[in-house]
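Per-residue structure
===
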Amino acid sequence: MQKLLCLSTFWVLTGFLVACSDGGDQSPLPAYDFSSADAWLDAFVQEEPAFDGAAMIVVDARLGVVHETAVGEHTVDTVYMLASVSKVASVSLLMALADDPAVEFDLDTPIENYLPWPGVYPGITTAHLLSNVSGIPGLLAGLSGDYGVHACQYAAAGQFPESDTLMECAQAIYQAPLAGTLPPGTLFDYGGSQWQLAGAVAEAVGGDSWANLFERYLGEPCGLEVYEYGNMFANPGGWTGFPDSLVGRDNPNIEGGAISGLRDVATLLQMHLNDGLCGVNRVMSERSAQRMREDVGTALGSREWIGSAGRGYGLGWWVPPAEAGQQPTLFQDGGAYGSVSYIDTARGYGVFVALAKYDDLLAARRGPTRINPELTPIVAAAIDAANAPR
Protein backbone atom coordinates (compact mmCIF):
# COMPACT_ATOMS: atom_id res chain seq x y z
CA MET A 1 0.00 0.00 0.00
CA GLN A 2 1.11 3.56 -0.48
CA LYS A 3 2.49 5.01 2.70
CA LEU A 4 0.70 8.05 4.10
CA LEU A 5 2.73 11.16 4.78
CA CYS A 6 3.47 11.99 8.41
CA LEU A 7 3.30 15.42 9.93
CA SER A 8 7.02 15.85 9.42
CA THR A 9 9.81 14.06 7.60
CA PHE A 10 13.46 13.83 8.39
CA TRP A 11 16.84 12.46 7.48
CA VAL A 12 19.39 10.90 9.76
CA LEU A 13 22.76 12.27 8.70
CA THR A 14 25.81 11.32 10.78
CA GLY A 15 23.70 11.34 13.91
CA PHE A 16 22.23 14.81 13.29
CA LEU A 17 18.56 15.31 12.43
CA VAL A 18 17.29 18.02 10.12
CA ALA A 19 13.54 18.55 9.89
CA CYS A 20 11.83 19.45 6.68
CA SER A 21 8.30 20.27 5.70
CA ASP A 22 6.54 21.27 2.52
CA GLY A 23 7.89 24.80 2.22
CA GLY A 24 8.10 25.55 5.96
CA ASP A 25 11.08 26.72 7.96
CA GLN A 26 13.94 24.32 8.50
CA SER A 27 15.43 24.07 11.96
CA PRO A 28 17.96 21.78 13.62
CA LEU A 29 16.61 19.06 15.83
CA PRO A 30 18.22 17.17 18.69
CA ALA A 31 21.44 15.35 17.83
CA TYR A 32 20.63 11.90 19.12
CA ASP A 33 23.53 9.64 19.96
CA PHE A 34 22.44 6.02 20.35
CA SER A 35 25.94 4.58 20.09
CA SER A 36 25.80 3.23 23.67
CA ALA A 37 22.49 1.51 22.94
CA ASP A 38 23.91 0.04 19.72
CA ALA A 39 26.97 -1.20 21.59
CA TRP A 40 24.73 -2.84 24.21
CA LEU A 41 22.69 -4.59 21.50
CA ASP A 42 25.81 -5.88 19.76
CA ALA A 43 27.25 -7.13 23.04
CA PHE A 44 23.94 -8.76 23.96
CA VAL A 45 23.94 -10.86 20.78
CA GLN A 46 27.56 -11.86 21.36
CA GLU A 47 26.84 -12.80 24.98
CA GLU A 48 23.57 -14.63 24.34
CA PRO A 49 24.24 -17.50 21.92
CA ALA A 50 20.53 -18.33 21.68
CA PHE A 51 20.05 -15.29 19.42
CA ASP A 52 21.51 -15.03 15.92
CA GLY A 53 20.97 -11.27 15.75
CA ALA A 54 18.76 -8.41 16.77
CA ALA A 55 17.36 -5.14 15.50
CA MET A 56 16.14 -1.97 17.16
CA ILE A 57 14.14 1.09 16.15
CA VAL A 58 13.49 4.27 18.13
CA VAL A 59 10.55 6.51 17.32
CA ASP A 60 9.86 10.04 18.55
CA ALA A 61 6.26 11.16 19.12
CA ARG A 62 6.72 14.21 16.89
CA LEU A 63 9.58 13.34 14.54
CA GLY A 64 8.91 9.70 13.77
CA VAL A 65 11.81 7.28 13.43
CA VAL A 66 15.04 8.74 14.81
CA HIS A 67 17.20 5.62 14.86
CA GLU A 68 17.30 2.05 13.59
CA THR A 69 20.03 -0.54 13.66
CA ALA A 70 20.58 -4.27 13.24
CA VAL A 71 23.31 -6.66 14.33
CA GLY A 72 24.23 -10.26 13.62
CA GLU A 73 22.20 -11.96 10.91
CA HIS A 74 19.33 -9.48 11.15
CA THR A 75 18.76 -6.37 9.03
CA VAL A 76 16.49 -3.36 9.46
CA ASP A 77 14.20 -5.02 6.89
CA THR A 78 13.81 -8.37 8.68
CA VAL A 79 10.20 -9.42 9.20
CA TYR A 80 9.48 -10.90 12.62
CA MET A 81 6.85 -13.10 14.20
CA LEU A 82 5.81 -10.86 17.08
CA ALA A 83 4.10 -13.25 19.52
CA SER A 84 2.56 -11.14 22.30
CA VAL A 85 3.94 -7.89 20.90
CA SER A 86 0.77 -8.29 18.82
CA LYS A 87 -1.46 -7.49 21.79
CA VAL A 88 -1.32 -3.69 21.68
CA ALA A 89 -2.20 -3.71 17.99
CA SER A 90 -5.05 -6.15 18.62
CA VAL A 91 -6.50 -3.96 21.36
CA SER A 92 -6.06 -0.94 19.11
CA LEU A 93 -8.41 -2.48 16.54
CA LEU A 94 -11.09 -3.16 19.17
CA MET A 95 -10.70 0.42 20.42
CA ALA A 96 -11.04 1.78 16.90
CA LEU A 97 -14.24 -0.22 16.41
CA ALA A 98 -15.64 1.05 19.70
CA ASP A 99 -14.88 4.63 18.64
CA ASP A 100 -16.56 4.27 15.24
CA PRO A 101 -20.01 5.89 15.51
CA ALA A 102 -21.24 3.64 12.71
CA VAL A 103 -20.57 0.50 14.78
CA GLU A 104 -22.81 -0.45 17.70
CA PHE A 105 -20.20 -1.68 20.10
CA ASP A 106 -19.14 -0.87 23.66
CA LEU A 107 -16.20 -2.49 25.44
CA ASP A 108 -18.12 -2.68 28.71
CA THR A 109 -21.20 -4.45 27.35
CA PRO A 110 -21.25 -8.26 27.85
CA ILE A 111 -20.13 -10.07 24.72
CA GLU A 112 -23.29 -12.20 24.61
CA ASN A 113 -24.90 -9.09 23.14
CA TYR A 114 -22.56 -9.29 20.13
CA LEU A 115 -21.70 -12.94 19.48
CA PRO A 116 -24.19 -14.88 17.31
CA TRP A 117 -24.35 -18.04 19.44
CA PRO A 118 -25.23 -18.92 23.03
CA GLY A 119 -22.29 -19.53 25.35
CA VAL A 120 -21.25 -20.62 28.81
CA TYR A 121 -19.47 -17.43 29.90
CA PRO A 122 -22.14 -14.93 30.93
CA GLY A 123 -21.28 -11.37 31.87
CA ILE A 124 -17.86 -11.21 30.24
CA THR A 125 -17.15 -7.91 28.49
CA THR A 126 -14.59 -7.18 25.80
CA ALA A 127 -12.70 -5.07 28.34
CA HIS A 128 -12.47 -8.16 30.57
CA LEU A 129 -11.03 -10.16 27.69
CA LEU A 130 -8.44 -7.55 26.73
CA SER A 131 -7.24 -7.02 30.30
CA ASN A 132 -6.94 -10.77 31.02
CA VAL A 133 -9.56 -10.71 33.79
CA SER A 134 -12.37 -12.57 32.01
CA GLY A 135 -12.15 -15.51 34.42
CA ILE A 136 -11.34 -17.91 31.58
CA PRO A 137 -8.06 -19.73 32.40
CA GLY A 138 -5.22 -18.15 30.49
CA LEU A 139 -1.96 -18.97 28.78
CA LEU A 140 -0.53 -21.22 31.48
CA ALA A 141 -3.58 -23.48 31.33
CA GLY A 142 -3.10 -23.71 27.58
CA LEU A 143 0.55 -24.68 27.95
CA SER A 144 -0.37 -27.38 30.49
CA GLY A 145 -2.20 -29.41 27.86
CA ASP A 146 -5.57 -29.13 29.58
CA TYR A 147 -7.07 -26.64 27.15
CA GLY A 148 -9.20 -29.02 25.14
CA VAL A 149 -11.05 -27.39 22.28
CA HIS A 150 -9.74 -23.99 23.42
CA ALA A 151 -6.41 -24.99 21.84
CA CYS A 152 -7.94 -24.17 18.45
CA GLN A 153 -6.57 -20.66 18.99
CA TYR A 154 -3.07 -22.03 18.34
CA ALA A 155 -3.89 -23.86 15.12
CA ALA A 156 -4.14 -22.93 11.47
CA ALA A 157 -6.78 -24.35 9.14
CA GLY A 158 -6.70 -28.15 9.04
CA GLN A 159 -4.54 -28.53 12.14
CA PHE A 160 -7.42 -28.81 14.60
CA PRO A 161 -11.11 -29.69 14.09
CA GLU A 162 -12.35 -26.21 15.00
CA SER A 163 -9.48 -24.15 13.57
CA ASP A 164 -10.62 -23.36 10.03
CA THR A 165 -11.88 -19.85 10.85
CA LEU A 166 -11.69 -17.43 13.74
CA MET A 167 -15.46 -17.54 14.24
CA GLU A 168 -15.53 -21.34 14.24
CA CYS A 169 -12.75 -21.46 16.82
CA ALA A 170 -14.40 -18.76 18.95
CA GLN A 171 -17.74 -20.57 18.95
CA ALA A 172 -16.04 -23.74 20.17
CA ILE A 173 -14.30 -21.74 22.92
CA TYR A 174 -17.44 -19.89 23.92
CA GLN A 175 -19.45 -23.08 24.29
CA ALA A 176 -16.86 -25.20 26.13
CA PRO A 177 -16.37 -24.38 29.83
CA LEU A 178 -12.85 -24.83 31.19
CA ALA A 179 -12.07 -26.23 34.62
CA GLY A 180 -10.98 -23.43 36.90
CA THR A 181 -13.14 -20.76 35.27
CA LEU A 182 -13.98 -17.87 37.59
CA PRO A 183 -16.53 -15.05 37.39
CA PRO A 184 -15.29 -12.14 35.25
CA GLY A 185 -13.41 -9.44 37.08
CA THR A 186 -12.17 -11.84 39.78
CA LEU A 187 -8.54 -12.64 38.95
CA PHE A 188 -5.84 -11.67 36.43
CA ASP A 189 -4.83 -14.65 34.28
CA TYR A 190 -2.74 -13.61 31.28
CA GLY A 191 -3.41 -14.62 27.69
CA GLY A 192 -5.11 -17.64 26.24
CA SER A 193 -8.42 -18.18 24.52
CA GLN A 194 -10.03 -15.05 25.96
CA TRP A 195 -8.15 -13.13 23.28
CA GLN A 196 -9.59 -15.32 20.51
CA LEU A 197 -13.06 -14.42 21.79
CA ALA A 198 -12.12 -10.74 21.51
CA GLY A 199 -11.22 -11.31 17.87
CA ALA A 200 -14.60 -12.90 17.23
CA VAL A 201 -16.32 -9.92 18.82
CA ALA A 202 -14.45 -7.67 16.37
CA GLU A 203 -15.58 -9.74 13.39
CA ALA A 204 -19.17 -9.86 14.68
CA VAL A 205 -19.58 -6.14 15.30
CA GLY A 206 -17.43 -5.09 12.34
CA GLY A 207 -19.13 -7.40 9.86
CA ASP A 208 -15.86 -8.43 8.22
CA SER A 209 -12.77 -10.57 8.71
CA TRP A 210 -10.12 -9.63 11.26
CA ALA A 211 -7.67 -9.02 8.41
CA ASN A 212 -9.97 -6.67 6.54
CA LEU A 213 -10.95 -4.80 9.69
CA PHE A 214 -7.31 -4.37 10.69
CA GLU A 215 -6.47 -3.01 7.25
CA ARG A 216 -9.42 -0.61 7.30
CA TYR A 217 -8.99 0.76 10.81
CA LEU A 218 -5.20 0.61 11.24
CA GLY A 219 -3.32 -0.53 8.15
CA GLU A 220 -4.56 2.12 5.74
CA PRO A 221 -4.78 5.11 8.13
CA CYS A 222 -1.29 4.40 9.47
CA GLY A 223 0.31 3.40 6.15
CA LEU A 224 1.42 -0.01 7.42
CA GLU A 225 3.28 -2.07 4.84
CA VAL A 226 3.83 -5.53 6.35
CA TYR A 227 1.76 -5.91 9.51
CA GLU A 228 -0.73 -8.80 9.35
CA TYR A 229 -1.98 -11.72 11.41
CA GLY A 230 -1.69 -15.46 10.98
CA ASN A 231 -1.24 -18.53 13.15
CA MET A 232 2.19 -20.20 13.16
CA PHE A 233 2.12 -21.63 16.68
CA ALA A 234 1.54 -25.23 15.59
CA ASN A 235 4.50 -25.03 13.22
CA PRO A 236 6.83 -22.09 14.00
CA GLY A 237 9.56 -23.81 12.02
CA GLY A 238 7.52 -23.19 8.89
CA TRP A 239 8.23 -19.48 9.11
CA THR A 240 10.87 -18.51 6.54
CA GLY A 241 11.08 -14.83 7.33
CA PHE A 242 8.89 -13.96 4.33
CA PRO A 243 5.18 -13.13 4.60
CA ASP A 244 4.25 -15.74 2.00
CA SER A 245 5.15 -18.45 4.53
CA LEU A 246 2.56 -17.16 7.02
CA VAL A 247 -0.31 -19.61 7.55
CA GLY A 248 -3.51 -19.39 9.55
CA ARG A 249 -4.83 -16.12 8.16
CA ASP A 250 -8.43 -17.39 8.42
CA ASN A 251 -7.99 -18.24 12.11
CA PRO A 252 -5.43 -15.64 13.14
CA ASN A 253 -4.11 -15.83 16.67
CA ILE A 254 -5.29 -12.57 18.19
CA GLU A 255 -2.97 -12.48 21.19
CA GLY A 256 0.21 -13.34 19.34
CA GLY A 257 -0.13 -14.09 15.64
CA ALA A 258 1.08 -10.88 13.98
CA ILE A 259 4.14 -10.43 11.77
CA SER A 260 5.84 -7.12 11.13
CA GLY A 261 9.01 -5.29 10.27
CA LEU A 262 10.57 -2.63 12.46
CA ARG A 263 8.89 0.35 10.86
CA ASP A 264 5.28 -0.81 11.16
CA VAL A 265 5.71 -1.48 14.86
CA ALA A 266 7.35 1.93 15.23
CA THR A 267 4.41 3.57 13.45
CA LEU A 268 1.96 2.00 15.89
CA LEU A 269 4.11 3.04 18.85
CA GLN A 270 4.12 6.61 17.53
CA MET A 271 0.34 6.44 17.17
CA HIS A 272 0.06 5.55 20.86
CA LEU A 273 2.50 8.28 21.86
CA ASN A 274 0.13 10.66 20.09
CA ASP A 275 -2.96 9.23 21.79
CA GLY A 276 -4.53 7.67 18.72
CA LEU A 277 -3.22 9.84 15.87
CA CYS A 278 -1.39 8.32 12.91
CA GLY A 279 -0.06 11.42 11.20
CA VAL A 280 -3.22 13.41 10.54
CA ASN A 281 -5.47 10.37 10.76
CA ARG A 282 -7.25 9.65 14.03
CA VAL A 283 -7.32 5.89 14.58
CA MET A 284 -8.89 5.97 18.03
CA SER A 285 -9.98 8.62 20.48
CA GLU A 286 -7.55 10.12 22.98
CA ARG A 287 -9.64 8.59 25.76
CA SER A 288 -9.35 5.10 24.26
CA ALA A 289 -5.57 5.35 23.89
CA GLN A 290 -5.29 6.56 27.47
CA ARG A 291 -7.60 3.85 28.77
CA MET A 292 -5.30 1.21 27.34
CA ARG A 293 -2.60 2.48 29.72
CA GLU A 294 -4.73 2.46 32.88
CA ASP A 295 -3.62 -0.27 35.26
CA VAL A 296 -6.55 -2.57 36.02
CA GLY A 297 -4.43 -5.67 36.54
CA THR A 298 -2.70 -4.81 39.80
CA ALA A 299 -5.95 -4.84 41.79
CA LEU A 300 -6.69 -8.34 40.48
CA GLY A 301 -3.29 -9.90 40.98
CA SER A 302 -1.28 -9.15 37.85
CA ARG A 303 1.86 -8.34 39.83
CA GLU A 304 1.77 -11.84 41.33
CA TRP A 305 1.27 -13.62 38.00
CA ILE A 306 4.34 -15.75 37.29
CA GLY A 307 5.46 -13.91 34.17
CA SER A 308 4.59 -10.37 35.14
CA ALA A 309 7.87 -9.28 36.76
CA GLY A 310 5.81 -7.32 39.27
CA ARG A 311 3.92 -5.25 36.72
CA GLY A 312 0.38 -4.06 36.40
CA TYR A 313 -1.67 -4.45 33.23
CA GLY A 314 -3.97 -2.22 31.25
CA LEU A 315 -5.53 -3.16 27.92
CA GLY A 316 -2.64 -4.67 25.97
CA TRP A 317 0.08 -2.82 27.87
CA TRP A 318 2.09 -4.10 30.81
CA VAL A 319 2.46 -1.28 33.36
CA PRO A 320 5.69 -1.30 35.41
CA PRO A 321 5.26 0.27 38.84
CA ALA A 322 6.17 3.94 39.04
CA GLU A 323 8.03 5.68 41.84
CA ALA A 324 5.97 6.45 44.94
CA GLY A 325 3.45 9.17 44.26
CA GLN A 326 4.10 9.19 40.51
CA GLN A 327 1.88 8.09 37.65
CA PRO A 328 3.27 5.37 35.33
CA THR A 329 4.82 6.69 32.13
CA LEU A 330 6.49 3.51 30.84
CA PHE A 331 4.33 0.90 29.12
CA GLN A 332 5.59 -2.40 27.70
CA ASP A 333 4.42 -5.10 25.30
CA GLY A 334 6.83 -8.02 25.08
CA GLY A 335 6.67 -11.31 23.22
CA ALA A 336 7.52 -14.97 23.77
CA TYR A 337 10.17 -14.98 21.03
CA GLY A 338 12.26 -12.40 22.90
CA SER A 339 11.12 -9.09 21.40
CA VAL A 340 10.20 -6.07 23.50
CA SER A 341 8.29 -2.94 22.55
CA TYR A 342 7.57 -0.02 24.84
CA ILE A 343 6.64 3.63 25.00
CA ASP A 344 7.79 6.30 27.42
CA THR A 345 5.04 8.91 27.49
CA ALA A 346 7.01 11.32 29.70
CA ARG A 347 9.91 11.52 27.26
CA GLY A 348 7.75 11.04 24.17
CA TYR A 349 9.50 8.14 22.49
CA GLY A 350 9.03 4.44 21.81
CA VAL A 351 11.34 1.49 21.14
CA PHE A 352 10.99 -1.86 19.47
CA VAL A 353 13.81 -4.35 20.06
CA ALA A 354 13.26 -7.30 17.74
CA LEU A 355 14.50 -10.81 18.47
CA ALA A 356 13.64 -14.12 16.86
CA LYS A 357 14.19 -17.14 19.07
CA TYR A 358 11.28 -19.17 17.70
CA ASP A 359 12.33 -22.68 18.75
CA ASP A 360 13.06 -22.26 22.47
CA LEU A 361 10.73 -20.05 24.49
CA LEU A 362 12.72 -20.51 27.68
CA ALA A 363 15.89 -19.25 26.01
CA ALA A 364 13.92 -16.41 24.42
CA ARG A 365 13.10 -15.08 27.89
CA ARG A 366 16.67 -13.76 28.04
CA GLY A 367 15.45 -11.01 25.72
CA PRO A 368 13.05 -9.14 28.02
CA THR A 369 14.93 -10.29 31.12
CA ARG A 370 17.89 -8.18 30.01
CA ILE A 371 16.37 -5.56 27.71
CA ASN A 372 13.95 -4.12 30.26
CA PRO A 373 16.44 -3.43 33.09
CA GLU A 374 19.60 -2.87 31.02
CA LEU A 375 18.80 -1.33 27.62
CA THR A 376 15.79 0.79 28.56
CA PRO A 377 17.76 3.18 30.82
CA ILE A 378 20.53 3.50 28.21
CA VAL A 379 18.05 4.65 25.58
CA ALA A 380 16.36 6.98 28.08
CA ALA A 381 19.72 8.57 28.88
CA ALA A 382 20.36 9.16 25.17
CA ILE A 383 16.97 10.83 24.81
CA ASP A 384 17.58 13.00 27.87
CA ALA A 385 21.04 14.03 26.69
CA ALA A 386 19.78 15.06 23.27
CA ASN A 387 16.98 17.16 24.75
CA ALA A 388 18.95 18.75 27.60
CA PRO A 389 19.04 22.58 27.58
CA ARG A 390 22.05 24.04 25.80
About this structure: The domain at 9-387 is CATH 3.40.710.10 (Beta-lactamase). The first helix runs from residue 35 to 47. Residues 111 and 125 are 5 Å apart (CA to CA). The radius of gyration is 20 Å.
